[in-house]
Every structure is written in structure tokens, then in C-alpha cells.
Amino acid sequence: MPSLVEAKRQVVAYVDSGRYEADIAAVADEARTYLESRAQRGGKLAIVVDIDETALSNLPSMRANDYGFIVAGPCDLPRGPCGLIAWIGMARAEPIKPVLALVRLARDRGVDVFFLTGRPERLRAATEANLRAAGYGWSGVILKPDDLTTKSAADFKAPERKKLQDQGYTIIVNIGDQMSDLDGGFAERTYKLPNPFYFIP
Ligand SMILES: [Mg+2]
Q1: Alpha-carbon span 132 to 146, nearest angstrom
Q2: Radius of gyration of the chain (CA)
Q3: Coil, helix or strand for 22?
Q4: Where are the domains positioned within the chain?
Q5: Separation of 199 CA from ligand 1 center, angstroms?
Q6: How many CB atoms sit inside 10 A of residue 10's CB?
Q7: Cα first-last separation, the chain
Q8: How many Å lie between the centroid of ligand 1 and the Cα of residue 24?
Q9: To which H or E segment does residue 82 belong?
Q10: 33-48 pLDDT, tens per residue?
């Protein structure tokens, strides 16, 4: 097992070399290719898109914390520390561009876009403001109820995808940076983006 310092050095090298961005683009491009062909067959179609490290990049806050995880307190950029809740409230995260291109393609082809996030409902206003500022449009933004805790994010997300299916949607693409975004079914195809920063069970 590498030391913490060495592990962080590897993360910095992965991001700064451009490999992180390239790996994201490769996965999102596959999703776009599938969406493009699948949309031609028609139906009441949807894609489901995770938010953090999928639609939006929190890299500025993670860099400011030297890839440590700080939830509470103010967010001082670029110097740090940067508390996660304060950072989300600033609604300044940039779009992950290949995912923005996927969402735009979907909407252009008449495919509904649903964001599905483990962010709690109390952060809805900041989350929607950030998505809008980043250039996203959508049919729905589904956040976790404030009082809900589950062992895995999949225990919240999979049933939410089932609800969309029960409304008559066929989810053709589900894209996220955690396996817990994708596990549990209710999507024709799943697309896993890299996340070398953190793990969400
Ligand atoms: Mg995520």
C-alpha cells in the first residue's frame, strides 16, 4: 500500500497529465455513440446523470484541500481550506465538458435528462443554480431526501430509476463516477467515469 503522500502524488499526476480528462472523454464518447444510435429507434427515452464528478467537477475545492475531505467551515479559494457545503453553496463548479456534450445531445434528440444525486434536498437551490450556470438543461433533478440515509447510494438511486421506468421511461444511458451510481439496474447501458479522489459506497 502506498503512503498517503505517494497516493496523493499519483492522483495529482493522473489529473495534471491530462489522463483523467482523457479517460472521462473516452467513456462519455461511448455513451454519446450509443445514445445517437438508440435515439433513432424512438420511444419515451431518458438518460440519468450523476452530478458530482460526473456533470460537475469539484476539482478546485479538492485541490484547495490538497485532496483531503473537509465538509464543514468556509471555502477559501484557491488557498483553502474549502468546506464542501460552503463550496456547493457557491455554485461555482465547472461542467465536465464531455458530459455536458452528452446532455446536450440527449436534449437535442428529444431524450429526457434526469440528474440523480446523493446531494440532499436542502441543497437543491444551489445545485440547480450551479447546473444552470454550467450550461445544463434537464427534465428533472432528483436529490436525496434530507432525512434519508442508506448503506449504499444505490439503495436510493436504483429505486429512483425504477420510478422513472414506472412513469413509462426507458433509461437508455446511466452515467456516474461511482459503481453505486450504476448498480441495481433500470438502465440499458451504464457508463463509469473515473474518480481517483473519493469512494461512495
Ligand atoms: Mg458522483
Answers
A1: 22
A2: 17
A3: helix
A4: 4-56+94-192, 59-92
A5: 9
A6: 11
A7: 21
A8: 13
A9: none
A10: 999 999 999 999 999 9
